## 1
Amino acid sequence: MSTDTFRRHARVRVDAVIRRAFAYRESFVRDPFPIMRPTGHPLAVVHAFTQHVFGTYPTSRFLASAWLTDNCEHQRWFIAIAQGASVKSLSLPIALTRRMGHLFLATPDHYSIPHALRRAELLALGASDELVAAVLATHLGSDLSDWRRRLTWLARLEDVDLNQVGPIIDYLHAHPDLDLRGRTYASVMRLVEEWHAWLAKQRHRLVRWTPAPFHPLTIPIAATRHQPRAAEWTIHELTDSRALLLEGRTMHHCVSSYVRRCAAGYASIWSLRFRWLDEEHGRSVLTIEVHPRFRLVGQIRGPHNARASPAHYDLVCQWAAQSSLRMR
């Protein structure tokens, strides 16, 4: 993005923030005029403006992201904190302890508010930074339902494979009544593997959903003297339950359990595939989960939930940049 394009983009976003802020003009503590000209990153500009018009007390910069969306609840939280309210006094979807509240306010700038709440909860429960990142890549980063008991169990595990955090959460989501008391990581992984095997054998009625507003990617690979066969990499969306089932069977993971989330618009599943052009079908290499409402790439899983290789991850980053998606 050029400097001029960045400035125009920042100005448009700041103008939208000013319009949103004036909906709460009764909460202004200072005259908003003259309005500063946007310079620097939009979040820094938005934080400076909203802190000026609403703030009696300093606020964490990441909270200003509330004004970059239309989430009125998050905007009211910003105003309340800027005017002296404690985090615990807010009507939050997660009940925060004092330590969680402190960790929430100390969140780095690049986190969204839902991710910041879940991150604070996990850190206070004793989760490592790596485990926090693995959990936030799942639907629990945006779904702030009560998972305290299950996250406490997960945070206390010492031998957890981070590549299996997503599959474990998917299994627990599908089996909400499972009692985790006394269960080890190995015993739960046996249940996950049995569930995956069961899913692979199921036949579901065909369900289709509206494609997400992101573009597919095709990268041609020309033939060379050393490799005379032309090929291509593609990333395309899976838009029905049959495609998810086939992807899950091929990749040996549980993506077929995402039908309801895809149909409701909470998730969008994409497949990175490689194909020789003289062959009809390609092979799946990675399965990619996107959170459309946050324009965020979540989980990226290879066969048997393996981690993506650097080269394959770079392809996903290229596609995400093309589609204006953020990478976790």
## 2
Amino acid sequence: MLFERIDFGDNLPLRCLLSEVKDYPLHMHDDALEILFVLDGSCELTVVNNAIPLR
């Protein structure tokens, strides 16, 4: 799996991760916003029992 972490310094509340996602377990965030970009192909994102196709 490709995984890269990008840090922008201690003074910014920002963390960027670049990863190849094949199967990712169900999880939730209390204090973060997760943004997904599909660079190639398609996938399905499930949010609160709603399936959202991404391409």
## 3
Amino acid sequence: MSQHLEEDFDEEEVDLYEHHRILVDKGQSPIRIDKFLTEKIAHATRNKVQQAIDSGRILVHGNPIKSNYRIKAGDDIRVYLEKPPRDTEVIPENIPLDIIYEDKDLLVVNKPAGMVVHPAHGNWTGTLVNALVYHFQHLPELSGNVGRPGLVHRIDKDTSGILVIAKTEETMAPLAAQFFHHTIQRTYLALVWGEPEANSGTIIGHVGRSAQDRKIMDVFPEGNQGKHAVTHWKVIRRLRYVTLVECTLETGRTHQIRAHFKYLGFPLFNDAAYGGNKIRKGTQFSAYKNFVQTCFEKLPRQALHAKSLGFIHPISKENLYFEVPLPTDFDSVLQAWEKYVQTI
């Protein structure tokens, strides 16, 4: 079952790591990129480079290219792989944890927005896992997830909210199994652009990596790509040009909520990766534009919060349920929209 658990471990964060960045010299002749990289990168073969290009893991100025692309002076070439470019040693760091529940078997934490869950390229320190290994020794690891002690799920860096951490081997596998079998109760709050006509609904659509940008996800409604994904949602508050919705996850795919709502035409507020960092609904008045920009500054991330988590304690078999309030940045933007709506 460990292989399947590893697949379902994908919660809200894409596992692509930048391994190489090459800035092409001014004097470089315009040769094919596959030939150029084969010569530049140790142990690279032409076939491996072409496969990486075809899968969208080699970008020039942030855009996918073809194997016959001819490099030019000043080209910014980046090569991404699915495994981190260093060992799995985790450095303990004395970072405070917001623990909302703890016993000898597990703990539940409230992760702030901006904190990466586990070490990866560009974020080897300052993560939740760095904090965990400082405060707790001998945390277990899921098979296939070396370097992620205690983790049975995760949320994305700029998503705030609740996570459960396994403290023992006896706890880890049963907790992971609950995520795998989708028996965990999870709700999120999201502020989305626009106003859905219905007050509730269910989004069903396979979620998989975008062919155009491998760092984000697309929805494939026909189900011939990606993984099966189901998001149930209901309206909590309508705020004229934006809507607060509560989402209940039936599956836990990478960027599931963000990709599903973009697919519906209601991207999350200030979600730069999915087009929510532009004004999607509203007026052309400068006062309105200034108001939205102020809200972007108050909430400099996607408006997504992991509100609650319910599961069966693996040892005591007790039904546990935890809920954390909206963080200040998200709450302040909600209050700002409520005041704005009252003035129009």
## 4
Amino acid sequence: MAELFYANTAELATLTNTFAVSGTPTDPTTISLVITDPTGTATTYTYAAAQITRSGTGVYTKDIPCSAAGVWTYVWIGTGAASDVTAGTWTVQSTSLNRLYCTPEELKSRVGIADSISDLEILGAVITVSRWIEDHCERTFHQTAVTRTFDSCDAYLLAVDDLVSVTSVATDTSRDGTFATTWTATDYQLLPLNPAAGSETRPYTSLRSVGNHTFPLRSGTDREGLTQIVGVFGWAVVPAAVRQAAAIWATDLLKLSGMAFGIAGYGEYGPVRARPNPIVDALLAPYRRHPVKVA
């Protein structure tokens, strides 16, 4: 199947199969449908148990909730009057659009695709590129409201993941897994100062203790993660350079599917192989958490 769904019990994959004998739709004596989810768990549905719907002679359907991301498989089995087995797959994605640095619509516009025939490949390209950029830069640019824990080697300074805003800060001073010490907004300062002073708004990357508390230091057999932060992590706005890099790389990645063995063409000395676009590296270089020096 070419359909693409999202991980949600309210999102349904409608499976339809027509059983036929010599091209003529025919009702089998028994009908069953085996669904295997991405975890490998198989579930069997039967027409006899009223779990499958008959919509016409030989035509049967079943709605399956897309509750998990990954590749799902199905096998229709008919016996007796119309003995046949039909197998296939469909894909469920767990992404949400705010985690994409290039949208499917943007990529389709760049490559001049107006139909939906290649939607599966389009979405696969933008998802792959978005996650690759995060691994390459060692940071995420989309916003996530979440609770995270951190450790510090400095009682007055705590390095954190890219941070947009803070809801609460608490520390586990007793080192028993409970964050009983609650900080007020006057107990800490977000750094760097003036994150919006440049050409784009940068995230906060550390907290400095300026009040009544200090960050507990871990040693020996102490638990890890003694400071808890509830807040919005990521960047306030995805940098334009990151979005442009994602669009360029997704376009190149999509084109690679038509290059056998990665060969883009043939030159004077033989095949010319496709190579990573240097513009992408240049655009992302300022955003890498640990820049790589090129000699």
